[in-house]
Structure formats: C-alpha cells, structure tokens
Amino acid sequence: MWFTRSLAVCLLVVSGVSSSSSSSTPSATPAQTKRYAILDNDWGAVSFIPILLALKGDMEILGLASNTANTWQRQSAHHALANLELANLTCIPVLPGSTHPLLHTPHRFHTWEALHGALPWQGAFAPESQDGNDPTSGDPDRLVREAFIEGFPRGSIDESRSAASFMVDMVRRYPGQVSIYSAGALTNVALAARLDSKFAENARELVVMGGYVDVNMLQVVGDVELANVNSDINLMIDPESAKIALTAPFPEILIAGNVANQIPSTQAFLDEVHEVRNPLTRLFHDHYGTEFPFWDETAAAVMVDRGVVLNTTTAYIDVDVAFGSPNYGNIHVYQKALMPPGLRNVTYVHRVDGERIKGMMKEAMQNPPSC
Ligand SMILES: *[C@@H]1O[C@H](CO)[C@@H](O)[C@H](O)[C@H]1NC(C)=O
Ligand SMILES: *[C@@H]1O[C@H](CO)[C@@H](O)[C@H](O)[C@H]1NC(C)=O
Ligand SMILES: *[C@@H]1O[C@H](CO)[C@@H](O)[C@H](O)[C@H]1NC(C)=O
To answer: Which residues form the signal peptide (predicted)?
Structure first.
C-alpha cells in the first residue's frame, strides 16, 4: 500500500522532470500537494465544525456525503445543507449517501438486542421518534422540520448523484490526494471500495470516528450515559460496511475511537467561543450542549493536522460481523504475528492535544472561512 503510493509519487516526479522541457506545469512535490477531503457524516443540527476545521487547514472540501447512523440519511443530508447555508459555504455540494446499511434493518437490530442486550443509543434504529427529534425507524425518507434548530435549508439536495459514485470519481480525478473522513456509518465508503477496486489505494487516507477498544468495563462502572458514550453506533449500525472499509487498502487508516472521548464539551468553552458573536458561535453556544465530547471534531482535527496526535499504536484491525456475537459491529485489534489473514494495519490514536484542538475549533468558529 505504501509501496504503491510512493511508486505513484515517483512516477509523478518523473513525469514532471521529463516534461519540464515542454510547456506543461511541473508536478508539485509531495509536501506541496494540495489536499482534498470528502466529509461523510450523519450530520446533525450543530455539525459544521469539522467543515470549518478542514477549510482552515487548507484542505479543499470536494463534497459532504450523508449517511444513516444517528438518523436517516435524508434528514442528515438536509442538516448538512442547513449547516452550509448558515456558514455561507454552499459552494460545497452535498451528496446523498445510502439510506440503508448493507444488511442491517431496525427489525434485525432489535432482534440482535433481544439476544445480546440493549444499546443506550440506537441511532436511526431507535423506536420511531415522535417529539420533533431527528427521525428514527418509521419511514426513512421523512424529514422532521422541527429538528432543524439551525434553520431548515432553503436549497434542496441534488439527488442525481450518489455519494459513493462521487467518492470514486473524485479519487480518480485526484489520485493520492483525497482524504475520506467518516464520522458516521461506513456504508458509502464500503460501496465506493466495492464499486472501484482501486478506490481505497488511490485515496490518500481514511479517517474514522469510531472503533472503540476494550470499553466493555466502562459500560458497567458508570451510569447509562457513560455506557452510551462508549458504544460504537457508527460501526454497529452497519457492521458489514465497517469491515469492508476498515480492511480496504487505503494507504493509511486513522482510527479516532476511544480518544474521541478525551475532550469534553464544557460550558466554559462554549462561553469562551461565544465571546465573538456570529451565527456559528451562537448556534454552538446555544445548542452544542455539554453532554457529549467533541467526537467528530477530534477526528477532523486529526485529519487536518497530524501534529495534534500525541500517541498512537499500529494495530491490525477487524470488525466482528457475527450476528450471534455480543460484539457484532465492534472492532478487534491484533498484532501482526497473531492476526488472521486479510487484515491491514491502522494507526490507532490513543492521545491527542486537547487544548490545541480546542484552539483550532475556537479560531475556526470565531474567524470562519469562506468559499
Ligand atoms: C453569512 O452571510 C450573512 C449575510 O451576509 C451574514 O449576516 C452572516 O453573518 C454570515 N455568516 C457567517 C457565519 O459568516
Ligand atoms: C500511549 O498510549 C498507550 C495506550 O493508552 C499507553 O499504553 C502508552 O504508555 C502510551 N505511550 C506514551 C508514550 O504515552
Ligand atoms: C503497515 O502496513 C504497510 C503495508 O503492508 C507496511 O508497509 C507498513 O510498514 C506497516 N506499518 C507498520 C508501522 O507496521
């Protein structure tokens, strides 16, 4: 995988040299190579920060993809658009992702829960929401307008192109330069990897929010909320896709699992960001809340600036896809000498510089980027 990529870089350099006598533009050196990103998420009402972080980090965002994890894909795509409208960033397109996981359905998920125990947060598979929250179960295509506290989007989603085919096309256009960021289910990433067998190796990297390891005890020693923040809904909503994506030959896979719980949201930080008043700091201050850590933001910061990462382990990784297992949809890590065949190594992030990430978030919201 690395070999393929460095070979591609060599070829680029060679072609740059050989064409230097002609009028074509010389290739950039790897350090100057422009970085692109596709951000795939189960977008919610206050989910613009990863977008701002990527733009502030000099990445060009090719598009936002929607997936089904916390809520159904269609609602999530509209939240993506609403967040872009609020941030005046509608130059970025929203690509509708797959509404359904590869195999999983609410019924199948509840059958699994009956066998193995309930999850505190069941994402889109939770019993049908009735109270103005993002939709769960029921009709996957319905939009719940009351849940758009950021404002219902004025524009509409272009349904003519799917997120997976967009990912494939963009990686073909910019080989070695596109970071795929996944902070929800991995359905679209798996579909792209299956559509084009060169997709993963020609991307730059896959950065994932999710993939907790050894958190079972944390589901017991505290309250249901502690169990909640240690459950892996992003992978569990579509275990088969998670396995396909996390074993695909991306040059690098970065996992922000347990570490995503490292930076708690605090009232003091919400207030500090709101010292500068704009629509983004207001929405963040009034509606982000202090219940959940900065999950998606941590993964985005890791993608943008590897300097925030303080400690990592290289691990070979698999996803449990046995329906009869209590760990269905959770990851298992191996060292090379002991792993089964077919796995690949990932960079498992253990510790990040929380103050630096909060500094990046604050700057991005107080001084937001434009199109
Ligand atoms: C977006 O543009 C509107 C209209 O110009 C402006 O009032 C608003 O503050 C802008 N939002 C941000 C986040 O800059
Ligand atoms: C990195 O994190 C791992 C897992 O938490 C820990 O065992 C190890 O001691 C850490 N290493 C450093 C240098 O902090
Ligand atoms: C990860 O796997 C790649 C490809 O097999 C290999 O080149 C690289 O050395 C591995 N990294 C580590 C740290 O083991």
So the answer is: 1-19
